[in-house]
Design a protein that fits this description.
Strands 6-7-8-9-10-11-12-13-14-15-16-17 form a twelve-stranded antiparallel sheet. The longest helix is centred in the first third of the chain and has 31 residues. By secondary structure, the protein is α+β, with helices and mostly antiparallel strands. It contains five helices and 17 strands.
Length: about 425
Protein backbone atom coordinates (compact mmCIF):
# COMPACT_ATOMS: atom_id res chain seq x y z
CA UNK A 1 0.00 0.00 0.00
CA UNK A 2 1.31 3.41 -0.99
CA UNK A 3 1.62 5.83 1.91
CA UNK A 4 0.98 9.60 1.45
CA UNK A 5 2.88 12.27 3.27
CA UNK A 6 -0.07 14.33 4.49
CA UNK A 7 2.15 17.21 5.49
CA UNK A 8 3.51 17.35 1.92
CA UNK A 9 -0.04 17.09 0.50
CA UNK A 10 -1.32 19.99 2.57
CA UNK A 11 1.88 21.86 1.77
CA UNK A 12 1.19 21.55 -1.98
CA UNK A 13 -2.38 22.75 -1.52
CA UNK A 14 -1.11 25.65 0.54
CA UNK A 15 1.40 26.59 -2.14
CA UNK A 16 -1.28 26.38 -4.82
CA UNK A 17 -3.52 28.64 -2.74
CA UNK A 18 -0.71 31.16 -2.24
CA UNK A 19 0.20 31.21 -5.93
CA UNK A 20 -3.49 31.53 -6.84
CA UNK A 21 -3.83 34.56 -4.58
CA UNK A 22 -0.69 36.12 -6.03
CA UNK A 23 -1.99 35.54 -9.57
CA UNK A 24 -5.37 37.14 -8.77
CA UNK A 25 -3.69 40.14 -7.16
CA UNK A 26 -1.39 40.46 -10.18
CA UNK A 27 -4.34 40.38 -12.62
CA UNK A 28 -6.24 42.96 -10.59
CA UNK A 29 -3.14 45.16 -10.61
CA UNK A 30 -2.86 44.82 -14.39
CA UNK A 31 -6.52 45.71 -14.81
CA UNK A 32 -6.10 48.75 -12.60
CA UNK A 33 -2.97 49.77 -14.45
CA UNK A 34 -4.73 49.42 -17.81
CA UNK A 35 -7.63 51.57 -16.66
CA UNK A 36 -5.42 54.31 -15.23
CA UNK A 37 -2.73 54.24 -17.91
CA UNK A 38 -1.88 57.58 -19.43
CA UNK A 39 -1.78 59.67 -16.29
CA UNK A 40 -4.45 61.80 -14.70
CA UNK A 41 -5.79 63.39 -17.90
CA UNK A 42 -9.30 63.07 -19.19
CA UNK A 43 -10.28 59.97 -21.18
CA UNK A 44 -11.68 60.38 -24.69
CA UNK A 45 -13.19 58.08 -27.30
CA UNK A 46 -12.47 59.41 -30.79
CA UNK A 47 -15.18 58.17 -33.16
CA UNK A 48 -13.65 59.20 -36.48
CA UNK A 49 -13.17 56.87 -39.43
CA UNK A 50 -11.11 59.35 -41.48
CA UNK A 51 -8.70 60.47 -38.72
CA UNK A 52 -5.09 59.34 -38.44
CA UNK A 53 -5.09 58.15 -34.83
CA UNK A 54 -1.31 57.73 -34.75
CA UNK A 55 -0.82 61.36 -35.79
CA UNK A 56 -3.33 62.57 -33.19
CA UNK A 57 -1.78 60.52 -30.37
CA UNK A 58 1.66 61.80 -31.29
CA UNK A 59 0.58 65.45 -31.25
CA UNK A 60 -2.10 65.47 -28.54
CA UNK A 61 -0.65 63.73 -25.49
CA UNK A 62 -2.63 65.55 -22.81
CA UNK A 63 -5.50 63.03 -22.84
CA UNK A 64 -6.00 59.27 -22.60
CA UNK A 65 -7.42 57.36 -25.58
CA UNK A 66 -9.78 54.46 -24.90
CA UNK A 67 -11.25 51.80 -27.16
CA UNK A 68 -14.38 51.53 -24.97
CA UNK A 69 -16.85 54.41 -25.42
CA UNK A 70 -18.59 53.48 -22.16
CA UNK A 71 -15.45 54.41 -20.18
CA UNK A 72 -14.84 57.72 -21.96
CA UNK A 73 -15.39 61.04 -20.25
CA UNK A 74 -15.69 62.71 -23.65
CA UNK A 75 -17.13 61.01 -26.74
CA UNK A 76 -16.01 62.85 -29.88
CA UNK A 77 -18.22 62.01 -32.85
CA UNK A 78 -16.76 63.23 -36.14
CA UNK A 79 -19.00 63.50 -39.22
CA UNK A 80 -17.95 64.56 -42.71
CA UNK A 81 -19.75 66.38 -45.48
CA UNK A 82 -18.42 66.52 -49.02
CA UNK A 83 -18.59 70.05 -50.42
CA UNK A 84 -19.24 71.08 -54.01
CA UNK A 85 -15.87 72.85 -53.97
CA UNK A 86 -14.17 69.45 -53.67
CA UNK A 87 -13.26 70.06 -50.04
CA UNK A 88 -14.56 68.32 -46.93
CA UNK A 89 -16.27 69.78 -43.89
CA UNK A 90 -15.47 67.91 -40.64
CA UNK A 91 -18.08 68.37 -37.90
CA UNK A 92 -16.76 67.55 -34.41
CA UNK A 93 -19.50 66.77 -31.88
CA UNK A 94 -18.01 66.85 -28.37
CA UNK A 95 -20.28 64.90 -25.98
CA UNK A 96 -19.44 65.09 -22.28
CA UNK A 97 -20.11 62.02 -20.12
CA UNK A 98 -19.72 61.08 -16.46
CA UNK A 99 -18.04 64.11 -14.81
CA UNK A 100 -18.74 66.25 -17.91
CA UNK A 101 -22.32 65.10 -18.37
CA UNK A 102 -24.41 67.82 -20.02
CA UNK A 103 -21.51 69.47 -21.85
CA UNK A 104 -22.09 69.19 -25.59
CA UNK A 105 -21.10 71.42 -28.50
CA UNK A 106 -19.93 71.20 -32.11
CA UNK A 107 -17.00 72.69 -34.02
CA UNK A 108 -16.61 72.73 -37.80
CA UNK A 109 -13.31 72.34 -39.65
CA UNK A 110 -12.87 72.93 -43.37
CA UNK A 111 -10.30 70.93 -45.34
CA UNK A 112 -9.86 72.61 -48.72
CA UNK A 113 -9.37 70.53 -51.90
CA UNK A 114 -5.83 71.88 -52.30
CA UNK A 115 -4.78 70.69 -48.82
CA UNK A 116 -2.43 67.72 -48.73
CA UNK A 117 -3.10 64.68 -46.52
CA UNK A 118 -0.68 66.01 -43.90
CA UNK A 119 -2.28 69.45 -43.90
CA UNK A 120 -5.70 67.82 -43.53
CA UNK A 121 -4.55 65.90 -40.45
CA UNK A 122 -3.07 69.09 -39.00
CA UNK A 123 -6.44 70.83 -39.38
CA UNK A 124 -8.28 67.86 -37.84
CA UNK A 125 -5.88 67.66 -34.91
CA UNK A 126 -6.03 71.43 -34.29
CA UNK A 127 -9.83 71.33 -34.21
CA UNK A 128 -9.71 68.43 -31.76
CA UNK A 129 -7.37 70.38 -29.48
CA UNK A 130 -9.58 73.48 -29.57
CA UNK A 131 -12.58 71.45 -28.41
CA UNK A 132 -10.62 69.67 -25.70
CA UNK A 133 -9.63 73.00 -24.13
CA UNK A 134 -13.10 73.22 -22.51
CA UNK A 135 -12.71 69.85 -20.77
CA UNK A 136 -9.03 70.25 -19.89
CA UNK A 137 -9.80 73.56 -18.17
CA UNK A 138 -12.56 71.97 -16.11
CA UNK A 139 -10.19 69.15 -15.19
CA UNK A 140 -7.59 71.57 -13.82
CA UNK A 141 -5.15 71.08 -16.72
CA UNK A 142 -4.76 74.75 -17.71
CA UNK A 143 -1.03 74.23 -18.13
CA UNK A 144 -1.66 71.76 -20.95
CA UNK A 145 -2.54 74.46 -23.51
CA UNK A 146 -1.87 78.01 -24.64
CA UNK A 147 -4.35 80.37 -26.27
CA UNK A 148 -3.45 82.72 -29.11
CA UNK A 149 -6.02 85.08 -30.63
CA UNK A 150 -5.63 86.25 -34.22
CA UNK A 151 -6.83 89.63 -35.45
CA UNK A 152 -9.72 88.70 -37.74
CA UNK A 153 -11.95 91.11 -39.73
CA UNK A 154 -15.44 91.78 -38.32
CA UNK A 155 -18.10 89.22 -39.16
CA UNK A 156 -19.59 89.71 -42.60
CA UNK A 157 -16.69 91.80 -43.83
CA UNK A 158 -14.74 90.43 -46.77
CA UNK A 159 -11.21 91.93 -46.74
CA UNK A 160 -10.80 91.22 -50.44
CA UNK A 161 -14.15 92.58 -51.60
CA UNK A 162 -12.93 96.10 -52.26
CA UNK A 163 -9.96 94.89 -54.23
CA UNK A 164 -12.20 92.60 -56.30
CA UNK A 165 -14.73 95.27 -57.17
CA UNK A 166 -17.10 95.29 -54.20
CA UNK A 167 -20.57 93.73 -54.25
CA UNK A 168 -20.61 92.98 -57.98
CA UNK A 169 -17.63 90.65 -57.68
CA UNK A 170 -18.81 88.57 -54.74
CA UNK A 171 -20.96 86.34 -56.96
CA UNK A 172 -17.92 85.30 -58.99
CA UNK A 173 -15.75 84.94 -55.88
CA UNK A 174 -17.87 81.99 -54.72
CA UNK A 175 -17.24 79.79 -57.76
CA UNK A 176 -14.91 76.80 -57.49
CA UNK A 177 -13.35 75.37 -60.66
CA UNK A 178 -11.73 71.98 -61.15
CA UNK A 179 -10.26 70.03 -64.07
CA UNK A 180 -9.01 66.44 -63.95
CA UNK A 181 -7.75 63.61 -66.13
CA UNK A 182 -6.44 60.08 -65.61
CA UNK A 183 -4.93 57.43 -67.87
CA UNK A 184 -4.60 53.76 -66.99
CA UNK A 185 -2.99 51.25 -69.36
CA UNK A 186 -2.31 47.58 -68.62
CA UNK A 187 -0.71 45.21 -71.11
CA UNK A 188 -0.05 41.46 -71.22
CA UNK A 189 0.84 38.96 -73.95
CA UNK A 190 -2.77 38.16 -74.84
CA UNK A 191 -4.73 41.16 -73.60
CA UNK A 192 -4.53 44.86 -72.91
CA UNK A 193 -6.81 47.54 -71.46
CA UNK A 194 -6.76 51.31 -71.87
CA UNK A 195 -8.92 53.58 -69.66
CA UNK A 196 -8.98 57.34 -70.16
CA UNK A 197 -11.01 59.78 -68.08
CA UNK A 198 -11.14 63.55 -68.12
CA UNK A 199 -13.57 66.24 -67.07
CA UNK A 200 -14.18 69.47 -65.23
CA UNK A 201 -16.35 70.95 -62.54
CA UNK A 202 -17.86 74.34 -61.73
CA UNK A 203 -19.61 74.75 -58.38
CA UNK A 204 -21.26 77.70 -56.66
CA UNK A 205 -22.53 77.43 -53.07
CA UNK A 206 -24.22 79.94 -50.77
CA UNK A 207 -26.82 79.57 -48.03
CA UNK A 208 -29.54 80.20 -50.63
CA UNK A 209 -28.12 78.71 -53.85
CA UNK A 210 -26.29 75.61 -54.97
CA UNK A 211 -25.24 75.52 -58.61
CA UNK A 212 -23.05 72.90 -60.27
CA UNK A 213 -21.90 72.04 -63.78
CA UNK A 214 -19.88 68.84 -64.28
CA UNK A 215 -18.83 67.39 -67.67
CA UNK A 216 -17.21 63.94 -67.43
CA UNK A 217 -15.84 61.80 -70.27
CA UNK A 218 -14.72 58.16 -70.23
CA UNK A 219 -13.13 56.07 -72.96
CA UNK A 220 -12.14 52.39 -72.64
CA UNK A 221 -10.50 50.07 -75.13
CA UNK A 222 -10.02 46.33 -74.56
CA UNK A 223 -8.04 43.90 -76.68
CA UNK A 224 -7.99 40.10 -76.24
CA UNK A 225 -6.18 37.54 -78.41
CA UNK A 226 -7.78 34.09 -78.44
CA UNK A 227 -5.80 31.72 -80.62
CA UNK A 228 -5.78 33.11 -84.14
CA UNK A 229 -8.69 35.52 -83.54
CA UNK A 230 -8.47 38.99 -82.04
CA UNK A 231 -11.29 40.68 -80.12
CA UNK A 232 -11.24 44.46 -79.81
CA UNK A 233 -13.94 46.48 -78.00
CA UNK A 234 -14.35 50.16 -77.21
CA UNK A 235 -16.68 51.67 -74.65
CA UNK A 236 -17.69 55.31 -74.11
CA UNK A 237 -19.61 56.93 -71.29
CA UNK A 238 -19.85 60.72 -71.54
CA UNK A 239 -22.04 62.84 -69.28
CA UNK A 240 -22.73 66.51 -68.66
CA UNK A 241 -24.70 67.14 -65.48
CA UNK A 242 -25.90 70.45 -64.06
CA UNK A 243 -28.15 71.56 -61.24
CA UNK A 244 -29.71 74.78 -59.97
CA UNK A 245 -31.01 74.35 -56.40
CA UNK A 246 -32.71 77.04 -54.33
CA UNK A 247 -33.27 77.00 -50.56
CA UNK A 248 -36.85 78.01 -49.80
CA UNK A 249 -36.92 77.56 -46.00
CA UNK A 250 -35.44 75.43 -43.22
CA UNK A 251 -37.43 72.46 -44.55
CA UNK A 252 -38.10 73.11 -48.25
CA UNK A 253 -35.88 73.34 -51.32
CA UNK A 254 -36.48 73.25 -55.08
CA UNK A 255 -34.25 72.65 -58.05
CA UNK A 256 -33.91 72.02 -61.77
CA UNK A 257 -31.52 69.39 -63.18
CA UNK A 258 -30.24 69.00 -66.72
CA UNK A 259 -28.26 65.95 -67.85
CA UNK A 260 -26.81 64.90 -71.20
CA UNK A 261 -25.49 61.36 -71.60
CA UNK A 262 -23.87 59.16 -74.25
CA UNK A 263 -23.28 55.54 -73.24
CA UNK A 264 -22.35 52.66 -75.56
CA UNK A 265 -22.85 50.12 -72.74
CA UNK A 266 -26.50 51.18 -72.31
CA UNK A 267 -27.09 51.64 -76.09
CA UNK A 268 -27.71 55.38 -75.69
CA UNK A 269 -26.52 57.56 -78.59
CA UNK A 270 -27.66 60.69 -76.76
CA UNK A 271 -30.05 61.51 -73.96
CA UNK A 272 -31.27 64.95 -72.82
CA UNK A 273 -33.03 65.06 -69.45
CA UNK A 274 -34.66 68.15 -67.90
CA UNK A 275 -35.92 67.42 -64.38
CA UNK A 276 -37.58 69.85 -61.94
CA UNK A 277 -37.53 68.62 -58.32
CA UNK A 278 -38.98 69.50 -54.94
CA UNK A 279 -37.64 68.29 -51.57
CA UNK A 280 -38.99 68.44 -48.02
CA UNK A 281 -36.81 67.77 -44.98
CA UNK A 282 -38.52 66.50 -41.82
CA UNK A 283 -35.64 67.84 -39.72
CA UNK A 284 -34.13 71.28 -40.33
CA UNK A 285 -31.38 71.22 -42.96
CA UNK A 286 -28.87 72.45 -40.38
CA UNK A 287 -29.20 69.06 -38.63
CA UNK A 288 -28.34 67.09 -41.78
CA UNK A 289 -24.90 66.06 -40.51
CA UNK A 290 -26.29 63.97 -37.64
CA UNK A 291 -29.89 63.34 -38.71
CA UNK A 292 -31.58 63.67 -42.07
CA UNK A 293 -35.00 62.55 -43.27
CA UNK A 294 -36.00 63.88 -46.68
CA UNK A 295 -38.77 63.31 -49.23
CA UNK A 296 -37.98 64.30 -52.83
CA UNK A 297 -40.18 64.29 -55.91
CA UNK A 298 -38.78 64.60 -59.46
CA UNK A 299 -40.53 64.96 -62.80
CA UNK A 300 -38.26 64.42 -65.80
CA UNK A 301 -38.65 65.13 -69.53
CA UNK A 302 -36.29 63.35 -71.95
CA UNK A 303 -35.34 63.24 -75.63
CA UNK A 304 -33.40 60.02 -76.21
CA UNK A 305 -31.88 58.17 -79.21
CA UNK A 306 -30.19 54.76 -79.48
CA UNK A 307 -27.29 53.14 -81.35
CA UNK A 308 -29.31 50.01 -82.14
CA UNK A 309 -33.01 49.34 -82.31
CA UNK A 310 -34.33 48.52 -78.84
CA UNK A 311 -36.40 45.55 -77.72
CA UNK A 312 -39.41 47.90 -78.00
CA UNK A 313 -38.57 48.62 -81.68
CA UNK A 314 -37.43 52.18 -80.98
CA UNK A 315 -34.55 54.14 -82.45
CA UNK A 316 -35.53 57.36 -80.65
CA UNK A 317 -38.27 58.50 -78.31
CA UNK A 318 -39.43 61.20 -75.95
CA UNK A 319 -40.12 60.24 -72.35
CA UNK A 320 -41.82 61.53 -69.23
CA UNK A 321 -40.67 60.00 -65.94
CA UNK A 322 -41.47 60.64 -62.28
CA UNK A 323 -39.74 59.47 -59.11
CA UNK A 324 -40.28 59.68 -55.37
CA UNK A 325 -37.45 59.11 -52.90
CA UNK A 326 -37.40 58.85 -49.10
CA UNK A 327 -34.01 58.99 -47.39
CA UNK A 328 -33.14 58.58 -43.70
CA UNK A 329 -29.62 59.11 -42.34
CA UNK A 330 -28.78 58.99 -38.64
CA UNK A 331 -25.35 59.33 -37.04
CA UNK A 332 -25.22 58.94 -33.26
CA UNK A 333 -22.64 57.75 -30.72
CA UNK A 334 -24.21 54.27 -30.87
CA UNK A 335 -23.75 53.97 -34.64
CA UNK A 336 -25.02 54.91 -38.10
CA UNK A 337 -28.27 54.15 -39.92
CA UNK A 338 -28.80 54.87 -43.64
CA UNK A 339 -32.03 53.88 -45.38
CA UNK A 340 -33.28 54.94 -48.82
CA UNK A 341 -36.49 53.96 -50.61
CA UNK A 342 -37.12 55.14 -54.17
CA UNK A 343 -39.69 54.40 -56.82
CA UNK A 344 -39.91 55.60 -60.44
CA UNK A 345 -42.00 54.97 -63.52
CA UNK A 346 -42.54 56.20 -67.08
CA UNK A 347 -45.87 57.92 -67.76
CA UNK A 348 -46.17 56.26 -71.19
CA UNK A 349 -46.35 52.85 -69.52
CA UNK A 350 -46.67 52.46 -65.75
CA UNK A 351 -45.45 48.87 -66.05
CA UNK A 352 -42.01 50.29 -66.93
CA UNK A 353 -40.95 51.07 -63.40
CA UNK A 354 -38.21 50.60 -60.83
CA UNK A 355 -38.22 50.16 -57.05
CA UNK A 356 -35.03 50.55 -55.03
CA UNK A 357 -34.37 49.80 -51.36
CA UNK A 358 -30.94 50.55 -49.88
CA UNK A 359 -30.07 49.98 -46.22
CA UNK A 360 -26.91 50.23 -44.18
CA UNK A 361 -26.72 49.72 -40.42
CA UNK A 362 -23.57 50.07 -38.33
CA UNK A 363 -24.50 49.70 -34.67
CA UNK A 364 -22.48 49.33 -31.48
CA UNK A 365 -24.29 46.65 -29.45
CA UNK A 366 -22.23 46.74 -26.25
CA UNK A 367 -18.68 47.37 -25.06
CA UNK A 368 -16.33 46.48 -27.89
CA UNK A 369 -18.98 44.69 -30.00
CA UNK A 370 -20.52 46.21 -33.12
CA UNK A 371 -22.14 44.84 -36.24
CA UNK A 372 -22.86 46.18 -39.70
CA UNK A 373 -25.50 45.10 -42.15
CA UNK A 374 -25.98 46.37 -45.66
CA UNK A 375 -28.58 45.29 -48.20
CA UNK A 376 -29.62 46.68 -51.59
CA UNK A 377 -32.49 45.41 -53.69
CA UNK A 378 -33.87 46.72 -56.96
CA UNK A 379 -36.91 45.61 -58.93
CA UNK A 380 -35.96 46.52 -62.50
CA UNK A 381 -38.67 46.86 -65.15
CA UNK A 382 -37.49 49.98 -67.00
CA UNK A 383 -34.61 48.86 -69.24
CA UNK A 384 -36.08 50.60 -72.27
CA UNK A 385 -32.72 51.06 -74.03
CA UNK A 386 -31.78 47.37 -74.31
CA UNK A 387 -30.87 46.52 -77.95
CA UNK A 388 -32.65 43.77 -79.84
CA UNK A 389 -30.90 40.46 -80.37
CA UNK A 390 -28.67 38.37 -78.17
CA UNK A 391 -25.37 39.57 -76.77
CA UNK A 392 -22.27 37.75 -78.00
CA UNK A 393 -20.12 35.74 -75.61
CA UNK A 394 -17.32 38.29 -75.99
CA UNK A 395 -19.65 41.18 -75.09
CA UNK A 396 -20.82 39.33 -71.98
CA UNK A 397 -17.35 38.33 -70.77
CA UNK A 398 -15.85 41.78 -71.40
CA UNK A 399 -18.81 43.62 -69.92
CA UNK A 400 -19.40 45.70 -73.04
CA UNK A 401 -23.18 45.41 -73.18
CA UNK A 402 -25.98 45.76 -70.65
CA UNK A 403 -27.96 42.57 -70.06
CA UNK A 404 -31.65 42.19 -69.28
CA UNK A 405 -32.57 41.56 -65.64
CA UNK A 406 -35.66 41.74 -63.44
CA UNK A 407 -33.80 42.47 -60.23
CA UNK A 408 -30.48 43.43 -58.69
CA UNK A 409 -29.52 42.53 -55.12
CA UNK A 410 -26.55 42.77 -52.76
CA UNK A 411 -26.11 41.81 -49.11
CA UNK A 412 -23.15 42.27 -46.77
CA UNK A 413 -22.82 41.51 -43.07
CA UNK A 414 -20.01 41.84 -40.59
CA UNK A 415 -19.21 41.62 -36.88
CA UNK A 416 -16.45 43.39 -35.01
CA UNK A 417 -15.29 42.77 -31.45
CA UNK A 418 -12.45 44.70 -29.84
CA UNK A 419 -11.04 43.76 -26.46
CA UNK A 420 -7.81 43.94 -24.48
CA UNK A 421 -6.11 46.99 -22.99
CA UNK A 422 -8.73 49.71 -22.58
CA UNK A 423 -6.23 52.55 -22.88
CA UNK A 424 -3.25 52.85 -25.18
CA UNK A 425 -1.53 56.17 -25.81
CA UNK A 426 1.59 54.63 -27.38
CA UNK A 427 2.54 55.26 -31.01
CA UNK A 428 4.80 52.67 -32.66
CA UNK A 429 5.01 52.54 -36.48
CA UNK A 430 8.09 50.31 -36.84
CA UNK A 431 7.96 47.86 -39.76
Amino acid sequence: MQMYDWNDYFGVKKMRFVFGCIFCIFMLWLQGSAQTAGGGGITIFLDCGSCDLNYIKQNTREVNYTIDPLRAQVHILVSTRRLDSGGTMYIFDFIGKNTFDGDRFTIDALVAPQNTALEAQEIINHTLQVGLVVFLAQNGQEDAFELTFKNLPPEGENPDSSAMGGETSRFWDRWIYEVFSSLNWSNESFRSTLDFRYGAGMNFVTEQWRIRFNPNFFYQERYVRNGDSDVNFTRRNNTVSSAFIRSISDHWSAGVFYNWNQNTYSNIRYSHWLTPALEYSIFPYEDAVTREFTIAYRLGFADQAYYEETIFLKMAERLLRQSLELRLNLREPWGNVNVALAGANFFQDFHKNRLTVETNFNVRVLKGLSFNLGADYRLVNDQISLPRGNATLEEILLGQRQLATNFQSEVNFGLRYTFGALYNNIVNTRL
